[in-house]
Amino acid sequence: MSEPRYECAVCGKLSASLVREARAVSIGRRSAVVEDEHLRCDRCGSEYVTPEQMERTQQRAVAAIRAEEGLLTPEEILRIRRKYGLSQAQLEALLRTGPKTVVRWERGTVFQSAAADTLLRLLDRDPNVVTSLAQIAELPVPKLEPSPAEAVRQEHDR
Fold it and tell me: Using an 8 Å Cβ cutoff, are 116 and 110 in contact?
C-alpha cells in the first residue's frame, strides 16, 4: 500500500508526502530535538507544515524541555488548579501572569518558568499559600476544600 499524497501548497501538484524526522526546535533560549512532522513535495522540493503539525511539534518540544528541566506537566498544573476550584483566569490573577498563560501551560504549548513552577508546587503543598497570594493580589480568597486526609482528620476530631 502506497503512502497518501497531498496537494503541494507551492506547485499545486498531488506530489507531497508526509515526512517524519528528528529536528531541533528552539523555544526562547532553549531547544529540544523532537520528531517533526511536515509535508515535502517530491516534485518541487518545497517543505511546509500545517498549523496542526506545527502545534504538535511545539507541544513535543515543550514536553521535552519540561522533562529535562523537571517542570510540572500540563496535567499536574490542571490538577493543582482544580484542587482549589480555580478557573484558568483566576489562577492567572493569583500568580499575576499574563492572560492565557495558564491556558498555554495546560495545553502544553508553553512551559512555565522555574519560578512559576516552584510557586505552583508551593500552592499544591500548602493551601495557606493560596490565601496569602489572594490577599497580596487583593483577590477573593478561594474556598478551599479539605484534602481527603484532612477531611478524615476533621471527622475524627468531631
Answer: no
